[in-house]
Design brief:
Radius of gyration: 18 Å
Number of helices: 9
Shape: globular
Largest sheet: 4 strands, antiparallel
Strand content: 5-15%
Mean pLDDT: 96
Helix content: 40-55%
Number of strands: 4
Distance between the termini: 22 Å
Structural class: alpha+beta
Order of helices and strands: HHEHHEHHHEHEH
Strand order of the largest sheet: 1-2-4-3
């Protein structure tokens, strides 16, 4: 059985998509980011909790503050990318549940009254949303460079607060010269899928 999605779209989102390491200087507009969010917000999360929060780093001053928290190998590309997003998990997402999960507003207190439970749920569901975000960047015809080589606590203190846990930093833009490393191997279907 073949996929319903057009092969060109499959290539854009998956087969030809790579982590970009260089970018052109073409700006990424607020309208593009809004279009990406308006698409990826429909990706499912448990209880529709939607804990992902996105901090866009645009100003030179903020960029300088971020670069110092990146691993050495990630600093030049973070400094040069047209747009950088800090993706984080909102550990107080449950405050929005009466709006986001209106058919069972009690979920806020019934399931998420304790902070450790919220932190676990937020981390898992925001990570899923981060993946949707990366695919959304690709759907916009842009390249994403997600990175976890960073000082997480430094980024949290510099840009967030105690209620937000950074997950990754994503460089966004049009790929520049030499943007791609050679594609690494992938596991075969029978190495991943087990039928029981």
């Amino acid at each position: 059985m073949s996929l319903v999605l057009d092969p060109a779209a499959q290539d854009l989102l998956f087969r030809e998509a790579r982590t970009a390491n260089t970018f052109t200087d073409e700006p990424v507009t607020d309208e593009q980011v809004q279009a990406i969010y308006d698409l990826v917000k429909y990706g499912p999360t448990a209880f529709n909790q939607s804990p992902l929060r996105i901090t866009l780093v645009r100003s030179p001053e903020a960029r300088e503050r971020l670069v110092k928290h990146m691993a050495e190998g990630n600093q030049p590309k973070t400094a040069a990318a047209p747009l950088v997003a800090i993706l984080s998990a909102d550990n107080e997402f449950h405050e929005e549940l009466p709006q986001l999960f209106p058919h069972f507003p009690q979920a806020k207190d019934a399931f998420f009254s304790e902070r450790p439970v919220r932190e676990g749920a937020a981390a898992l569901n925001a990570a899923m949303q981060a993946a949707y975000f990366i695919v959304g960047v690709r759907a916009a015809g842009l390249a994403a460079g997600p990175m976890t080589g960073l000082d997480f606590e430094g980024v949290r203190k510099e840009f967030l607060d105690d209620d937000h846990t950074p997950l990754m930093v994503v460089n966004i833009g049009r790929p520049g010269p030499g943007a791609w490393f050679p594609r690494s191997p992938r596991l075969a279907y029978d190495q991943v899928v087990t039928t029981v």
